[in-house]
Protein backbone atom coordinates (compact mmCIF):
# COMPACT_ATOMS: atom_id res chain seq x y z
CA UNK A 1 0.00 0.00 0.00
CA UNK A 2 2.76 2.44 0.96
CA UNK A 3 4.60 1.64 -2.28
CA UNK A 4 1.47 2.43 -4.26
CA UNK A 5 0.99 5.76 -2.46
CA UNK A 6 4.63 6.74 -2.98
CA UNK A 7 4.39 5.83 -6.66
CA UNK A 8 1.23 7.91 -7.05
CA UNK A 9 2.80 10.91 -5.30
CA UNK A 10 5.88 10.67 -7.48
CA UNK A 11 3.74 10.53 -10.60
CA UNK A 12 1.87 13.66 -9.53
CA UNK A 13 5.06 15.58 -8.86
CA UNK A 14 6.55 14.47 -12.16
CA UNK A 15 3.47 15.69 -14.01
CA UNK A 16 3.60 19.09 -12.29
CA UNK A 17 0.41 18.96 -10.33
CA UNK A 18 -1.84 17.07 -12.73
CA UNK A 19 -3.11 14.85 -9.93
CA UNK A 20 -4.26 17.86 -7.96
CA UNK A 21 -5.93 19.44 -10.96
CA UNK A 22 -8.85 21.58 -9.82
CA UNK A 23 -10.84 20.26 -12.74
CA UNK A 24 -11.54 17.21 -10.57
CA UNK A 25 -14.51 19.05 -9.11
CA UNK A 26 -16.17 18.56 -12.50
CA UNK A 27 -15.68 14.81 -12.66
CA UNK A 28 -19.08 14.16 -11.15
CA UNK A 29 -21.83 13.52 -13.65
CA UNK A 30 -24.02 16.57 -14.12
CA UNK A 31 -27.50 15.98 -12.82
CA UNK A 32 -30.15 16.08 -15.52
CA UNK A 33 -33.08 18.04 -14.15
CA UNK A 34 -35.95 20.02 -15.52
CA UNK A 35 -36.22 23.77 -14.90
CA UNK A 36 -39.44 24.94 -16.53
CA UNK A 37 -40.77 27.30 -13.86
CA UNK A 38 -39.08 30.32 -12.28
CA UNK A 39 -37.07 29.70 -9.10
CA UNK A 40 -38.22 31.70 -6.05
CA UNK A 41 -37.88 35.48 -6.43
CA UNK A 42 -37.04 35.15 -10.13
CA UNK A 43 -38.68 37.56 -12.61
CA UNK A 44 -40.46 35.64 -15.39
CA UNK A 45 -39.96 36.89 -18.95
CA UNK A 46 -41.86 36.10 -22.14
CA UNK A 47 -45.38 35.85 -23.44
CA UNK A 48 -48.17 36.23 -20.89
CA UNK A 49 -45.89 37.85 -18.30
CA UNK A 50 -45.43 41.44 -17.12
CA UNK A 51 -42.15 41.48 -19.03
CA UNK A 52 -42.51 40.23 -22.61
CA UNK A 53 -38.95 41.35 -23.39
CA UNK A 54 -35.61 40.96 -21.66
CA UNK A 55 -35.05 44.71 -21.94
CA UNK A 56 -38.20 45.45 -19.95
CA UNK A 57 -37.18 42.99 -17.24
CA UNK A 58 -33.72 44.53 -16.96
CA UNK A 59 -35.27 47.99 -16.74
CA UNK A 60 -37.50 46.79 -13.91
CA UNK A 61 -34.41 45.98 -11.84
CA UNK A 62 -33.65 49.68 -11.57
CA UNK A 63 -30.40 51.00 -10.14
CA UNK A 64 -30.14 48.71 -7.12
CA UNK A 65 -27.36 46.30 -6.33
CA UNK A 66 -29.13 43.48 -4.53
CA UNK A 67 -29.01 39.94 -6.01
CA UNK A 68 -31.51 39.54 -8.87
CA UNK A 69 -32.78 36.69 -11.00
CA UNK A 70 -34.40 36.48 -14.44
CA UNK A 71 -36.21 33.45 -15.87
CA UNK A 72 -36.71 33.25 -19.64
CA UNK A 73 -39.72 31.28 -20.79
CA UNK A 74 -39.27 29.21 -23.98
CA UNK A 75 -38.93 31.24 -27.15
CA UNK A 76 -36.74 33.25 -29.48
CA UNK A 77 -36.04 36.74 -28.15
CA UNK A 78 -35.17 39.01 -31.05
CA UNK A 79 -33.42 41.65 -29.02
CA UNK A 80 -30.05 43.30 -28.63
CA UNK A 81 -29.24 43.44 -24.94
CA UNK A 82 -26.86 45.46 -22.76
CA UNK A 83 -26.61 44.31 -19.14
CA UNK A 84 -25.21 46.86 -16.70
CA UNK A 85 -27.02 45.93 -13.48
CA UNK A 86 -24.91 46.74 -10.43
CA UNK A 87 -25.72 43.66 -8.35
CA UNK A 88 -25.22 39.92 -8.79
CA UNK A 89 -27.51 38.60 -11.53
CA UNK A 90 -28.56 35.07 -12.51
CA UNK A 91 -30.30 34.40 -15.82
CA UNK A 92 -32.06 31.06 -16.38
CA UNK A 93 -33.47 29.71 -19.60
CA UNK A 94 -36.37 27.29 -19.35
CA UNK A 95 -35.23 23.75 -20.12
CA UNK A 96 -36.35 20.14 -19.74
CA UNK A 97 -32.71 19.17 -19.09
CA UNK A 98 -30.46 21.69 -17.39
CA UNK A 99 -27.36 19.55 -17.97
CA UNK A 100 -27.44 19.70 -21.78
CA UNK A 101 -27.22 22.69 -24.11
CA UNK A 102 -28.95 20.60 -26.79
CA UNK A 103 -32.16 20.81 -24.73
CA UNK A 104 -32.16 24.62 -24.53
CA UNK A 105 -35.45 26.31 -25.44
CA UNK A 106 -34.34 29.95 -25.19
CA UNK A 107 -32.42 31.88 -27.85
CA UNK A 108 -31.50 35.57 -27.81
CA UNK A 109 -30.76 36.64 -31.37
CA UNK A 110 -29.92 39.74 -33.37
CA UNK A 111 -28.40 40.17 -36.84
CA UNK A 112 -25.90 42.94 -37.50
CA UNK A 113 -22.21 43.11 -38.34
CA UNK A 114 -19.66 45.49 -36.87
CA UNK A 115 -19.31 47.51 -40.09
CA UNK A 116 -23.00 48.40 -40.00
CA UNK A 117 -23.23 48.76 -36.22
CA UNK A 118 -20.11 50.91 -35.91
CA UNK A 119 -17.86 48.62 -33.87
CA UNK A 120 -17.64 45.14 -32.38
CA UNK A 121 -19.44 46.01 -29.14
CA UNK A 122 -22.37 47.52 -31.01
CA UNK A 123 -22.70 44.40 -33.14
CA UNK A 124 -22.94 42.12 -30.11
CA UNK A 125 -26.29 40.45 -29.51
CA UNK A 126 -25.61 40.51 -25.77
CA UNK A 127 -23.10 42.86 -24.15
CA UNK A 128 -22.45 42.42 -20.43
CA UNK A 129 -20.87 45.38 -18.64
CA UNK A 130 -21.65 44.03 -15.17
CA UNK A 131 -19.78 41.65 -12.90
CA UNK A 132 -21.06 38.57 -11.08
CA UNK A 133 -23.48 37.34 -13.75
CA UNK A 134 -24.43 33.69 -14.26
CA UNK A 135 -26.24 32.29 -17.31
CA UNK A 136 -27.87 28.86 -17.46
CA UNK A 137 -29.30 27.22 -20.60
CA UNK A 138 -29.40 30.30 -22.82
CA UNK A 139 -28.41 30.46 -26.50
CA UNK A 140 -26.75 33.64 -27.82
CA UNK A 141 -26.83 34.13 -31.59
CA UNK A 142 -25.77 36.70 -34.14
CA UNK A 143 -27.57 35.67 -37.29
CA UNK A 144 -25.80 38.03 -39.68
CA UNK A 145 -24.65 35.18 -41.90
CA UNK A 146 -21.55 33.51 -43.29
CA UNK A 147 -20.21 36.54 -45.14
CA UNK A 148 -16.69 37.46 -44.08
CA UNK A 149 -17.78 40.03 -41.56
CA UNK A 150 -17.41 40.44 -37.80
CA UNK A 151 -20.71 39.73 -36.04
CA UNK A 152 -20.47 39.10 -32.30
CA UNK A 153 -22.96 36.94 -30.40
CA UNK A 154 -21.72 37.73 -26.88
CA UNK A 155 -19.31 40.26 -25.38
CA UNK A 156 -17.82 40.32 -21.90
CA UNK A 157 -16.87 43.98 -21.54
CA UNK A 158 -13.58 45.28 -20.15
CA UNK A 159 -13.20 44.44 -16.49
CA UNK A 160 -16.46 42.49 -16.32
CA UNK A 161 -15.51 40.07 -13.57
CA UNK A 162 -16.96 36.72 -12.69
CA UNK A 163 -19.16 35.91 -15.68
CA UNK A 164 -20.08 32.23 -15.87
CA UNK A 165 -22.05 30.13 -18.33
CA UNK A 166 -23.59 26.69 -17.89
CA UNK A 167 -24.97 24.67 -20.83
CA UNK A 168 -25.17 27.77 -23.03
CA UNK A 169 -24.67 28.09 -26.79
CA UNK A 170 -22.85 30.84 -28.71
CA UNK A 171 -23.58 30.95 -32.44
CA UNK A 172 -22.12 33.06 -35.25
CA UNK A 173 -19.37 32.91 -37.88
CA UNK A 174 -16.61 35.47 -37.32
CA UNK A 175 -15.92 36.79 -33.79
CA UNK A 176 -18.64 34.79 -32.04
CA UNK A 177 -17.45 35.23 -28.45
CA UNK A 178 -15.57 38.35 -27.35
CA UNK A 179 -13.78 38.25 -23.98
CA UNK A 180 -12.33 41.72 -23.53
CA UNK A 181 -9.24 42.69 -21.55
CA UNK A 182 -9.69 42.53 -17.80
CA UNK A 183 -12.76 40.30 -17.93
CA UNK A 184 -12.84 36.88 -16.26
CA UNK A 185 -15.14 34.21 -17.68
CA UNK A 186 -15.94 30.55 -17.07
CA UNK A 187 -17.79 28.15 -19.39
CA UNK A 188 -19.00 24.66 -18.50
CA UNK A 189 -20.78 22.23 -20.85
CA UNK A 190 -21.25 24.96 -23.46
CA UNK A 191 -21.29 24.96 -27.27
CA UNK A 192 -19.43 27.62 -29.25
CA UNK A 193 -19.66 27.78 -33.04
CA UNK A 194 -17.96 29.91 -35.67
CA UNK A 195 -15.05 29.97 -38.09
CA UNK A 196 -12.79 33.03 -37.98
CA UNK A 197 -11.26 34.06 -34.63
CA UNK A 198 -14.50 32.98 -33.03
CA UNK A 199 -13.21 32.98 -29.46
CA UNK A 200 -11.18 36.15 -29.08
CA UNK A 201 -10.11 39.05 -26.88
CA UNK A 202 -7.60 39.96 -24.20
CA UNK A 203 -9.45 38.67 -21.14
CA UNK A 204 -9.39 35.31 -19.37
CA UNK A 205 -11.59 32.36 -20.27
CA UNK A 206 -11.65 28.87 -18.78
CA UNK A 207 -13.66 26.55 -21.04
CA UNK A 208 -14.55 23.28 -19.35
CA UNK A 209 -16.11 20.18 -20.93
CA UNK A 210 -17.41 22.23 -23.85
CA UNK A 211 -17.85 21.64 -27.58
CA UNK A 212 -16.03 23.97 -29.96
CA UNK A 213 -17.45 23.61 -33.48
CA UNK A 214 -16.04 25.12 -36.68
CA UNK A 215 -18.54 25.76 -39.47
CA UNK A 216 -15.97 26.76 -42.14
CA UNK A 217 -12.18 26.89 -42.55
CA UNK A 218 -10.54 29.32 -40.15
CA UNK A 219 -9.14 29.91 -36.69
CA UNK A 220 -10.64 29.01 -33.33
CA UNK A 221 -8.90 31.55 -31.11
CA UNK A 222 -7.44 35.03 -31.48
CA UNK A 223 -5.99 35.94 -28.11
CA UNK A 224 -5.70 39.68 -27.62
CA UNK A 225 -3.26 39.51 -24.70
CA UNK A 226 -0.90 42.43 -25.29
CA UNK A 227 0.94 42.75 -21.98
CA UNK A 228 2.47 40.43 -19.40
CA UNK A 229 -0.70 39.90 -17.37
CA UNK A 230 -2.51 36.82 -15.97
CA UNK A 231 -4.92 36.43 -18.90
CA UNK A 232 -5.31 33.03 -20.57
CA UNK A 233 -7.64 31.12 -22.83
CA UNK A 234 -7.67 27.53 -21.52
CA UNK A 235 -9.70 24.69 -23.06
CA UNK A 236 -9.93 21.76 -20.65
CA UNK A 237 -11.69 18.49 -21.51
CA UNK A 238 -13.25 20.05 -24.60
CA UNK A 239 -14.18 18.61 -28.01
CA UNK A 240 -12.89 20.36 -31.13
CA UNK A 241 -15.10 19.32 -34.06
CA UNK A 242 -16.77 20.45 -37.28
CA UNK A 243 -20.45 21.18 -37.60
CA UNK A 244 -22.47 18.51 -39.43
CA UNK A 245 -21.92 18.44 -43.20
CA UNK A 246 -18.82 20.65 -42.92
CA UNK A 247 -15.86 19.04 -44.68
CA UNK A 248 -12.99 20.66 -42.84
CA UNK A 249 -10.25 18.05 -42.55
CA UNK A 250 -6.96 19.92 -42.09
CA UNK A 251 -8.57 23.34 -42.59
CA UNK A 252 -8.84 24.76 -39.06
CA UNK A 253 -6.13 26.27 -36.84
CA UNK A 254 -6.24 26.28 -33.05
CA UNK A 255 -5.50 29.97 -33.14
CA UNK A 256 -3.45 32.95 -34.18
CA UNK A 257 -2.10 35.90 -32.16
CA UNK A 258 -4.37 38.93 -32.43
CA UNK A 259 -1.94 40.72 -30.12
CA UNK A 260 1.75 40.10 -29.55
CA UNK A 261 1.62 38.17 -26.26
CA UNK A 262 -1.29 35.85 -27.05
CA UNK A 263 -1.59 32.92 -24.64
CA UNK A 264 -3.74 29.81 -25.20
CA UNK A 265 -3.77 26.23 -23.92
CA UNK A 266 -5.68 23.19 -25.19
CA UNK A 267 -5.41 20.40 -22.62
CA UNK A 268 -7.06 17.06 -21.89
CA UNK A 269 -9.21 17.63 -24.97
CA UNK A 270 -10.30 15.75 -28.09
CA UNK A 271 -8.94 17.39 -31.23
CA UNK A 272 -10.56 16.03 -34.39
CA UNK A 273 -9.05 15.83 -37.87
CA UNK A 274 -10.26 19.33 -38.75
CA UNK A 275 -6.98 20.72 -37.41
CA UNK A 276 -4.25 21.83 -39.79
CA UNK A 277 -1.03 19.96 -39.06
CA UNK A 278 0.74 23.22 -38.17
CA UNK A 279 -1.82 23.85 -35.42
CA UNK A 280 -1.23 27.59 -35.12
CA UNK A 281 -0.53 30.43 -37.53
CA UNK A 282 0.52 34.09 -37.73
CA UNK A 283 -1.47 37.28 -37.30
CA UNK A 284 0.09 40.19 -35.35
CA UNK A 285 3.49 41.37 -36.60
CA UNK A 286 6.35 40.57 -34.24
CA UNK A 287 4.20 38.38 -32.01
CA UNK A 288 5.81 36.03 -29.49
CA UNK A 289 2.74 34.02 -28.47
CA UNK A 290 2.52 31.26 -25.90
CA UNK A 291 0.56 28.51 -27.63
CA UNK A 292 0.37 25.25 -25.70
CA UNK A 293 -1.06 21.75 -26.06
CA UNK A 294 -1.09 19.07 -23.36
CA UNK A 295 -2.46 15.55 -23.06
CA UNK A 296 -4.91 15.78 -25.95
CA UNK A 297 -6.36 12.94 -28.02
CA UNK A 298 -7.85 12.53 -31.48
CA UNK A 299 -6.56 12.75 -35.04
CA UNK A 300 -5.73 16.44 -34.64
CA UNK A 301 -3.62 15.95 -31.52
CA UNK A 302 -0.49 14.79 -33.35
CA UNK A 303 1.91 17.62 -32.70
CA UNK A 304 4.62 16.78 -35.25
CA UNK A 305 5.03 19.76 -37.54
CA UNK A 306 3.41 22.25 -35.19
CA UNK A 307 4.24 25.88 -35.82
CA UNK A 308 4.71 28.63 -33.22
CA UNK A 309 4.03 26.21 -30.38
CA UNK A 310 5.64 26.54 -26.95
CA UNK A 311 6.56 23.44 -24.99
CA UNK A 312 4.06 22.63 -22.25
CA UNK A 313 5.29 20.96 -19.06
CA UNK A 314 1.91 20.19 -17.53
CA UNK A 315 -1.73 21.16 -17.40
CA UNK A 316 -2.72 24.70 -16.51
CA UNK A 317 -4.64 24.96 -13.24
CA UNK A 318 -7.83 26.93 -13.02
CA UNK A 319 -6.51 29.20 -10.28
CA UNK A 320 -3.79 30.36 -12.69
CA UNK A 321 -6.54 31.67 -14.98
CA UNK A 322 -9.34 32.61 -12.56
CA UNK A 323 -7.58 33.24 -9.30
CA UNK A 324 -10.64 33.59 -7.08
CA UNK A 325 -12.79 31.06 -8.98
CA UNK A 326 -14.00 29.17 -5.90
CA UNK A 327 -16.04 32.18 -4.79
CA UNK A 328 -18.13 32.56 -7.95
CA UNK A 329 -18.10 29.40 -10.10
CA UNK A 330 -21.10 27.08 -9.60
CA UNK A 331 -19.25 23.93 -8.58
CA UNK A 332 -22.51 21.99 -8.16
CA UNK A 333 -23.28 22.15 -11.87
From TrEMBL:
Its EC number is 3.1.1.11. Residues 1-19 form the signal peptide. It is an enzyme of class 3 (hydrolase). Residues 24-33 have a biased composition (Basic residues). The keyword Repressor does not apply. Residues 24-46 are annotated as: Disordered. It comes from the Eukaryota. Pfam families: Pectinesterase. GO terms for biological process: cell wall modification; pectin catabolic process. The keyword Ligase does not apply. One of its GO terms (molecular function) is pectinesterase activity. InterPro entries: Pectin_lyas_fold (IPR012334), Pectin_lyase_fold/virulence (IPR011050), Pectinesterase_cat (IPR000070). Residues 50-306 form the Pectinesterase catalytic domain. Keywords: Aspartyl esterase, Hydrolase, Signal. Pathway: Glycan metabolism; pectin degradation; 2-dehydro-3-deoxy-D-gluconate from pectin: step 1/5. PANTHER family: ACYL-COA THIOESTER HYDROLASE YBHC-RELATED (PTHR31321), PECTINESTERASE 53-RELATED (PTHR31321:SF57). Belongs to the pectinesterase family. This is pectinesterase. It comes from Tothia fuscella. The lineage of its organism: Eukaryota, Fungi, Dikarya, Ascomycota, Pezizomycotina.
